[in-house]
Amino acid sequence: MKKEHRGGGKIRLVVMNGMRLILLLALIVGLVRGRYLILIISIVGLIATFLPAVLKKVFKVDVPAGFEIVALLFVYGLLYVGEVKGVYEQFWIFGVLLKLLASVILGFIGLAALYALYKQEKIQGPPLVIAFFAFCFAVAVGALWELFEFSLDNLFGFTLQKAGLDTMKDLASYVVGAGIVSIAGYRYLKRGRIIVISNLVEKVVARNASRLGIAANPEHVKEHVKKLISDGENHHVEFKSTLRTNLYTGQIDKSVEHAALKTVAGYLNSDGGTLLVGVDDKKEIGGLEKDNFPSQDKLSLHLTNLIKEHIGAEYLPFIDMDIVDVDGKNVLKVECKKSPKKVFLKMGKDEHFYVRNGPSTATLTGSSLVDYIAQRFGL
User: Fold this and answer.
1) For residue 4, what pLDDT is reported?
2) 80 pLDDT band (50/70/90 cuts)?
3) What is the pTM of this model?
4) How far is CA 265 from CA 170, 348, 352, in A?
5) Residue 65: Cβ-neighbour burial (10 angstroms; 0-12, 13-18, 19+)
6) Is residue 67 very low, low, confident or very high in pLDDT (cuts 50, 70, 90)?
7) 276, 285, 286, 290: which is closest to 233 by C-alpha?
8) Which of 190, 257, 259, 349 gets the highest tally of CB atoms within 10 A of its CB?
9) Are 330 and 243 in contact, with CB atoms under 8 Å apart?
10) CB count, 10 Å around CB of 82?
11) 6 by DSSP, 3-state: which?
């Protein structure tokens, strides 16, 4: 991990210094030749390259190297190549396509940020609402950019916007691009998939959650788990006393692990649900101590490896794990979303198909399996 970090830091340093050198040369050219648009954009670009360092120094906000490079390269391409070199004037279609690309990227950033907040349990809402606000974010930022161009035209006599029709074309490009992302994002969120750029955004959110005031409220999560326990087992909630230990023998038992994996597979094949490990059928909280894991991380890693081996790594995006302290005892909360693909639990050479049936998990075989898959997955 440290080697990767050093490697990412070197790449960031090379890219950042290269961009600064190019912008500095452009600044000198703009100053010597009286090209004030080049001068202004180059100054803005130079300032932008130092913003991550300022954010980290002053506000303690840590920006991952990958996100920083992607963002700055995009800003450089949009500002310098498009506006400074005058490509818009030579090829008007390039301007439309670049604004369309900008709206798509902004839409993905807005969608991924909202998705990260959703995973942090800071916001709640259906995929349609999250996609709609991502659309609004992209269009709003696009409108601010048009206002920036308008201000430059009026303050310095530039001609970034030829007329009102030019501005309307740009805004239409933002609307179309944001709409495409929102529709695609809605489909991805509804199916529980990971958004393309969300890994970078989630790193920003995870690293700075407490500073930005978006960290999940432990009390909120604790109360949610308490309510699930109080309401008891049902179609969407199931309790397991342990993850791997047989309470009668005190030994690690593969059948106990299998029971937990059955529940996870059943939720994925049905409408989703929550598995609580450390709680028995009588709603009594026993905790996770009897599983004898050296740490909480080891427990989470063990379950993750079980899911990879017996269900499939491709289904991990539909599963969220969290260890919650409830009245002094730890409870493992495993939340499963509805899977867009059928899930088989593999144990050795055998594969089994499970679904939720009331408060329990049932096996489907034969014609009932074929009918369910055809109805649920459209196959």
Assistant:
1) 41
2) low
3) 0.54
4) 47, 16, 9
5) buried
6) low
7) 276
8) 257
9) no
10) 19
11) helix
pLDDT digit string (tens) for 320-346?
899 999 989 999 999 998 888 899 999
Supply the DSSP string of 145-162, one letter for each residue: HHHHHHHHHHHH---S--
Question: Can you give the residue ranges of every domain in the chain?
Answer: 1-85, 107-209, 218-377
For the segment 173-185, the average pLDDT, to the nearest whole number, is 82
At 115, which amino acid appears? Y
What DSSP state is assigned to residue 291?
A: G
Name the DSSP letter for residue 241: S
Amino acid at 103: S
SS3 338: coil
Q: Are 251 and 260 in contact (CB under 8 A)?
A: no
Q: What is the Cα Rg of the chain in Å?
A: 26
113 Cβ contact list (under 8 Å, min separation 6): 137, 201, 205
Who's near 64: CB < 8 A, 6+ residues apart?
8, 200, 203, 204, 207
Q: Which parts of the chain fold into alpha helices (H)?
A: 2-33, 36-58, 65-76, 87-90, 92-119, 127-156, 164-190, 198-212, 218-231, 254-269, 296-310, 366-377
According to CATH, the topology of domain 218-377 is 3.30.950
pLDDT at 318 (0 to 100): 87
Closest CA to 195 of 130, 137, 136, 138: 130
The Cα–Cα gap between 11 and 226 comes to 47
- 216: helix, strand or coil: coil
pLDDT of residue 204: 54
Q: Please name which of 335, 253, 237, 347 lies closest in space to residue 292, comparing C-alpha atoms.
A: 253
Report the pLDDT averaged over residues 136-156.
80
Cα 163 from Cα 153, distance rounded (Å): 11
**Tokens 């969407």 found at:** 236
Instruction: For residue 362, give the H/E element and its range.
Output: strand 360-364
For the cut 90, the answer to whether the pLDDT of residue 263 exceeds it is yes
330-to-227, 254, 277, 278, 298 alpha-carbon distances in Å: 15, 22, 9, 7, 14
Packed helices 254-269 and 296-310: angle between N→C axes, nearest 10 degrees: 70
Pairwise CA distance, residues 190 & 177, whole Å: 20
